[in-house]
Amino acid sequence: MTKQAVIFSLSVLLVFLFHCITTKAQPAAAPAKPADAPTQPASPPAPPAKAPAQPAEIPVQTGPTDVTKILKKAGGYSVFIRLLKSTGVAGQLFGQLNDSSIGFTIFAPTDSAFSNLKAGTLNSLSDLQKTQLIQFHILNTVVTLTNFQTLSNPVPTEAGDVSNNEFPLNITTAGNQVNISTGLVNTTVGGTVYSDDQLAIYQVSKVLLPLDIFAPKPKVAAAPVSSKPKTNEDAAESPSGASKVDEAAAVRVCRHEMLAFIGVAAVAFFVMKGT
Ligand SMILES: *[C@@H]1O[C@H](CO)[C@@H](O)[C@H](O)[C@H]1NC(C)=O
Ligand SMILES: *[C@@H]1O[C@H](CO)[C@@H](O)[C@H](O)[C@H]1NC(C)=O
Ligand SMILES: *[C@@H]1O[C@H](CO)[C@@H](O)[C@H](O)[C@H]1NC(C)=O
Ligand SMILES: *[C@@H]1O[C@H](CO)[C@@H](O)[C@H](O)[C@H]1NC(C)=O
C-alpha cells in the first residue's frame, strides 16, 4: 500500500517535471515564429502587378504592331513568344508601339537556339532574371541592317543601364555581317523577320546570355559584410535575452506548481498510509 502511494506520488512528480521541462523549452522556440509571419504578406501583392499588363493585349488587336503575332506567323519562335508573354514584356511592347515615336529592335532566338541551351538554364532563372533575359534581346531604337555599324559599344538594351556597366551587348559589323557578343555568346544576326519604321525583328540562332545573369561578377560588396556580423550578434542577443526572461518566469511558475504537487502527493501518501 505505502509502496504504491510512493510510486504514485513519484510518478506524478516525474510527469510534472517533464511538463516543466517542455514548457521551459517552448519559450525559446516560440519567438521565432512571429518574425516569419510579417514577411509573408509582402509577397502576395506581387502577382497583381503582372495582371494589369496583360489585359492590354486582349482589347485592341487592330491597333499597334503585335510582336507575338508577327513571330507566330513567321514560325519557329514558340519559346521566345512564350517568354515574351509570361514576362509581360510582350504587353509592354504592344502598349509602347502604340506611340509612333517609340521604336524597337528585337533579336529573336529560334526554338533551336533555346533547345541548344544547357538543360535547366531557363528553369534556374527567377522571374526577374527571365524578364531581364528577354529585355536583353531588345534595343529601344529601330536599327536597320545597314545602321548597325553606327552603333557604339556597349549597345544599350532594355535589360539594364549600360552606363552602369549593366547588361553590355557588343555589336560589330563587317560588310553585311552583323556580329553580336555578350561576353558569353557570340552570334551573327540572321535573317530579317520583320521591319517597318517602328520595329525591326532579326533572327538569331543563339540565345543571348547576359554576363549579369549567367556569370555574375564577384560582389565587391563582400568587404562591408565582414563588419556586419556585429549587428547580427546584436540581433541574435536580444531574442535570447528575451527568452531568458521567459525561462525565468516559467521556472518560477513551475516551482510554485511543483510545491503544490509535492504537498498534494505528501497528503495522498499520508492518507494512504493512514488507511
Ligand atoms: C493607343 O493610343 C490610342 C490613342 O492615344 C488609345 O486610344 C488606345 O487605347 C491605345 N491603345 C493601346 C493598346 O494602348
Ligand atoms: C563575325 O563572326 C564570324 C564568325 O564568328 C567571324 O568570322 C567574323 O570575323 C566576325 N565579324 C566581325 C565583324 O566581328
Ligand atoms: C564590348 O565593347 C567594349 C567597348 O568597345 C569593350 O570594352 C568590352 O570589352 C566589350 N565587351 C565584350 C563582351 O565584347
Ligand atoms: C567571342 O569572340 C571573341 C572575339 O571576337 C573571342 O575572343 C571570344 O572568345 C568569343 N567568345 C565565345 C564564347 O566564343
Automatic annotation (TrEMBL):
Residues 31-40 have a biased composition (Low complexity). It is found in: Cell membrane. Residues 1-25 form the signal peptide. Residues 31-56, 223-242 are annotated as: Disordered. The keyword Signal applies. Its main location: membrane. May be a cell surface adhesion protein. This is FAS1 domain-containing protein. It comes from Carpinus fangiana.
